[in-house]
Amino acid sequence: MIPMVFGVILITFVLFNVVGGSPASMALGKNVSPQALEEFDEQRGFNKPLVFGWWTPTRACLKRDFAEPILLGTGTNYPVQLLFPLRSDTYYRLKIEVRATESGSTVNFHTGALTALSAPSYEVSRRWQWSEFLFKPYSTNSAGPGLILVSVVKGTVEIRNVRLERRMPHGWDSQLVHYFATLARLDLGTSLSTNEKVTTMLKRGILPSLALTVPIFFGSLVLSVVLALICAYWRNRWPDRILVFVAVVLMSVNYLVWIIFGQFFMAYKWHWFPIWGFESWGYLLLPVMIGILSGLGANLRFYRTVILDEIYKDYVRTAFAKGLSPAGVLFKHVLPNAMIPIVTNTVIALPFLYTGSLLLESFFGIPGLGGLSINAINSSDVDVVRGVVLVGAILYVVASLMTDLCYALVDPRVKLR
Amino acid sequence: MEECGQSLWREAWRDLMKRRLIRFCLGIIACFFLIALYGEIVYRYYQFADRTPSYSRVNLSERYLPPSPFRHPFALGGAMGGGLWHGVKALTYRPLGTDNLGRDVLQRTVQGTRIAFLVGVVTSLIAIPIGVLLGCISGYFGGWIDDLIVWLYSTIESIPGLLFILAVSMVVGKGILGVYLGIGLTTWVGLCRLLRADVMKHRDRAYVMAAQSLGFPPCRIIFRHILPNVFHIVIITFSLRFPAAIGTEVFMSFLGIGVQGEPSWGIMIGNARLRLWQGVWWEMAVVSAAILLVVLAFNLVGDALRDALDPRLRSKER
């Protein structure tokens, strides 16, 4: 159980931090200063190394790869313009990838008003090499962001790569550790679009979601088990054939089509149900019905297979032979014995109730977690998506533990040790 | 299980072909496959010629044309004047009507078929190799490798499926690549689990031990000896995940994070939904029918394949 929770946290980390990167520019828009982006990253810990590292890139000077190396002659400078003032509490290093085109070329670095440091000139080799310059900005730096000059003292050099990195106070001060730390405080972050705590959003959305999914769940469970028993009793005769075929057709109708046609005909054309909103239980009727119908096919087929596994056994034949009624045999003898797969299927499906139904909620205006996650995905609201995914996965892990416990309840052969 | 592989396949094929419904479904799938191929050719042609494709060209003078039989109900009876030929011509012009921008619904549905098949095939090409590889490895070797792979897939399984797919494609970026990766990278778990269980059963069989005692490397034993014996699982999984992938693609494109700027079925549904309230029903109806046909055909064939190929189920249900 613990390894799975750990795995889920790792997967969300890989997905959103490693692959996704910082959502700063998505959240703040196109025309914002690099300083604002840096502050955003600072708040959410995106300006740290991913897993481990002493150095991290800063937005004061974006990493640059030149397609064509820049050629610099004697006495010329390459200015590295800084976009905002550097922090004075830590070290920075400027790295350039450089090579000399004639032997004996030397360069040095000037930081102008930034620090008192100036590196001694040193000779550049003929091969491409990274050379770095370490400095610490002044604490009182009023002269603007400033710039760093790479000046060629003698000969000519070529520059291919420039990057500025900031030193972390600690090597483990990384995004991964930051992520675990915020999770340990039960903090799921804040929404990018509404600036609300994700935890409060989840708390607010869970009740409407459950109001929709719990009736769907139990309705479809009862209906499909009863229909599956009917199928199994008349197996391979026309009631079974028809039901199975209808189940496949129900399964094949796209979910969207269910919703759109249901809403259009039953709510709009025939006025049987309210169209949109969440004011009384009447608003839930249509979505619940659609939910049950769309899930019925798959469930019916699954339970039918499960019950067919039981119905060929000897005790069923005995029960029929001693003249019990079909309903008695099916509900009193077969059903309890088919409980194990049914319980597994049921309990495992429980956590998915919490995410609500993504589409039903946004179509019928139910303010639950499904609609919330759809909006979040549309607006690339990383923290909300991550929060919903994480909580859903953890609930699933808990539910699979519950399944094992339930086995002991429904099957006396299973003993917990 | 006692028969050799060849006869099992042949017998399964004969079983399938005996059933009229399944022949019909296979025919439907073949038709849609040809339509998708035709759509691909048209798409390539317009890309090559560097022109706006006819299926996305806006023609405001022909908005909201109903399907041709509704426009000219008596065309074949000579209502158009000029005899039968004119009637046929009138019926074949915009046969399924046009949408709100005057674009031909039939051509757009053909393109939607192309995208649906593309998604089904490409996501299978991503998911099935992952599932086969990990499932075989973990079933054959056991030990810590097995533990690791089981941990990996149970972790992925614990994440709510659709949300995970949407999250992956959100991170990758809107577009068809996001759809491929989102569906492909998250749906290999079922296959992996099934294969692992079956490979574990085969691992201790005599023929595997014989191969081991001949000193074959594990790679050869897994892929040349065991995999052919469990390959029916791959076939069944493919035929059942194909319609699921199509459904997911429709859903994603409908939400606007799937295919961009091309007439996918999801985009057409999203477009047609808004017009439904104005009484423009044909785009919605055509797309829904197309999805229903393809998915139903695949589901029925998949079921029949499972009955035919999985001997354990076969012995029970007959």
Question: What do you see in this structure?
Answer:
The complex is a heterodimer of chains A (417) and B (318). By secondary structure, chain A is α+β, with helices and mostly antiparallel strands. In chain A, 53% of the residues lie in helices and 14% in strands. In chain A, the strands form two sheets. In chain A, strands 1, 2, 4, 7 and 9 form a five-stranded antiparallel beta sheet that branches. A four-stranded antiparallel beta sheet of chain A has the order 3-8-5-6, with no helix packed on it. The radius of gyration of chain A is 32 Å and the shape is elongated. The model of chain A has no long low-confidence stretch (mean pLDDT 84). Chain B has 318 residues and is mostly helical. Chain B is 76% helix and 0% strand. In chain B, helix 2 packs across helix 13, helix 5 (105-141) packs parallel to helix 13 (282-309) and helix 7 (161-172) crosses helix 8 (176-186). Mean pLDDT of chain B is 87; it is low at 314-318. The interface between A and B is large, with 46 and 42 residues.
